[in-house]
Amino acid sequence: MKHMTFGHFACALSSLVFLSGAVIQESAAQGINLQYGSDNSPGSLPQITDLEFIRLVQERSGGKVKITYFDSGQIGTQRELLQKAKLGTQDFMSASSIMSTLLPELGLYDMPYLVKDRAHAECISKKIIIPRLAPKLEAQGYKLLGVWENGFRQITNNTRPIEKPADLKGIKLRVPQGVWRMKMFQAYGANPAPLAYAETFVALQTGVMDGQENPYSAIRGAKFNEVQKYLSETNHSYTPLYLIASLARFKRLPPDVQKLLEQAGADVQAFAFKKSAELDETDREKLIASGMQFNKADRDAFVAASEPIYQAFGKEVPGGKELIDEVLALANGCQ
């Protein structure tokens, strides 16, 4: 074997540098490719909102940023996607109630009848979530890019119409993976159990669960009406949809792309609120038309039964009572 001369080595090194530069240029020419995962079902408000964010980003970047989207839990449950984001192996995801398992303060959205309307929800995100709680999520490796909407939640089941909390007694109810939703329905007398959204249809179909609770668009999007008989309008809680990015991956993006993502995430909130208000009406009517038996629950009875939840949150979450008082005060206007 001939020994490589200095000239040969220099030539080889020069070629390697040239090839590396070519690869970098080619990558830049191809643009930035990102991945977005969710367990949101097609046609649901969260999925529609996910797609609106992706549309805005790709349009405003002039095609420089491309986002591949996976819905319906194709690449993982919310818990799995959060873990991937923390590890830096997932760019984006959208999550809802499960966020309270990361940050107890976010359990405030599980307080029954806390959020008055969408103007109130917008004020909460503006005054509390973004300035005070988002930095706490960053400390855990997550970048909060948007506070959108999942919606006001309703109850479906196969046992009986739910008019008062007592009607929930003994009902096996699927709930999201969050402590306070569990405690809420335990206080009402139900037998709640956490289960991934993508697994809920089969659980209802097979009788593992008697019922579940979700906004109208999520109920229709997941086709729960095909395996549920009763639809009760309770509006028992309002849940936001959080756009979460891996902080590690976000920091590696060019500054202009970071700014674009932050702006798009903020801008989608107005779209989500408007779209959700529309779907509340249309999806409810479609669910009723599909054969579900509909009733409106006794709101006052549920509010009265909810007091223990507020008391427990105030005791168990540091600063919980003060946080609830502040949120309630914002219902009178966002100054």
Molecular structure report:
The protein contains twelve helices and 13 strands. The protein has helices at about 5-30, 45-60, 80-85, 120-140, 180-190, 200-205, 215-220, 245-250, 255-290, 300-305, 305-315, 320-330, and strands at about 30-35, 65-70, 90-95, 140-145, 150, 155, 170-175, 190-195, 210-215, 230-235, 240, 240-245, 295. It has a six-stranded mixed beta sheet with strand order 8-7-9-6-10-13. Strands 2-1-3-12-4 form a five-stranded mixed beta sheet. Strands 5-11 form a two-stranded antiparallel sheet. The radius of gyration is 23 Å and the shape is globular. The N and C termini lie far apart (about 80 Å).
How do the strands and helices of this protein lay out in sequence?
Elements (H helix, E strand, L loop, with lengths): L5 H25 L1 E6 L7 H16 L4 E6 L7 H10 L4 E4 L22 H21 L3 E6 L3 E2 L1 E4 L14 E4 L3 H10 L2 E4 L5 H7 L4 E4 L1 H6 L8 E4 L4 E2 L2 E5 H5 L3 H35 L3 E4 L2 H7 L1 H10 L3 H11 L5
Helix pairs in contact: 2-9, 11-12
